[in-house]
Amino acid sequence: MLMTQHQYIDRKSGKIVTEKLFGDRLIHWLYSSVKESAPALFKMLTGARMSEFMGFLNYETALCTKLTRYDKFLGQKGINLDECLEPPEKLSTPRRLFERKIRYWETRIMPEDESAVVCPSDARVIVGSLKETSFLPVKGKLFSFEELIGEEKTSWLKAFAMGDFAIFRLTPEKYHYNHAPVSGVVADFYDIAGRYHSCNPAALAIELTPYSKNRRSVTIVDTSVPGGMGCGLVAMVEVAALMIGDIRQCYSDTAYDNPRDMEPGMFIKKGRPKSLFRPGGSTVVLLFQENAISFAPDIVANMNNSLSQSRLSTGLGRPLVETDVEVRSFLASVINSHPLSVITSEAKQSQSLQEV
């Protein structure tokens, strides 16, 4: 398959930007050649052990720091070290850079509107609907809804059927902490085993539903509680990718202090750090209940930009263009509250019966 450029829309400037893809030739070779001619080798290379080993080589060793020309990488990707909590000299390796902490309370200001759902990551985003009449058939290309949150999780599948979704693709240079998009009580948290496919657009254009086949962590948030957003159930699915060795849950109420793991019953606040992707690029998928939210008009409009060349458009017959967004920036407005205390109670009871 001929490699084409991949473009997105910068949200702040509105300009079309050509993405400088990290490891593009390697990813293209892996997915277009090895996957077809040597499936056993492909399976090994996208397995957990190899992904962890590749991550170690790329982010841990002094040799690879030199081979990947760390200083050049910093310059090309435009990483702003001034927003970091630690001084630049402390961010001397790829791992330290990718796991950097920032003064998000100063550099990623949230919307004043309390009903605003915010972006969970510094990432490139597309949005859509799970309805059969959806204008955006991404759910059949990038993920299978049932596989994404677990085919046995019938209560959650029922709750989110016909709802809306947003897919956030993090690239290697991005800030890799994910923040809570809403406020509410954790109704459920669980991990799903899987592989480690790349989030490079070349791989996404070739591989069938990679997001629901990779290893992932699922957090179900009940927002219709005192202090919550009142938009029903929200699922936050954190998806591992090639060279991602870990998705560490580390929620903090203040800055990055006293990090805690996710567990049912804990209250999380919108905009606070929730998890950390260990270095590389990866993905966050948000799911909302039907008619609960309305996505930002600029993100929706940008997806249809016919002047942009996006690899995600491959096979769709129409444009599918990402918008580059910042964590804690406006994603959607709450338009319909849900009586979630009832929904969550029924879901928990149903899930408990299944596990007996």
Describe the structure.
The protein has 356 residues and is α+β, with helices and mostly antiparallel strands. The protein has a domain at 107-355. It has twelve helices and 16 strands. The protein has helices at residues 24-37, 39-45, 48-59, 62-67, 70-77, 94-98, 104-107, 145-149, 154-160, 201-206, 297-303, 340-355, and strands spanning 7-10, 16-18, 116-118, 123-129, 164-169, 177-179, 184-192, 216-222, 233-239, 247-249, 267-268, 273-277, 283-288, 293-295, 323-325, 330-334. A ten-stranded mixed beta sheet has the order 2-1-15-4-5-13-9-8-7-11. Helix 1 (24-37) packs across helix 2 and helix 9 packs antiparallel against helix 12. The longest helix is centred in the last third of the chain and has 16 residues, at 340-355. It is globular, with a radius of gyration of 19 Å. Mean pLDDT is 79; it is low at 26-39, 61-69 and 345-356.
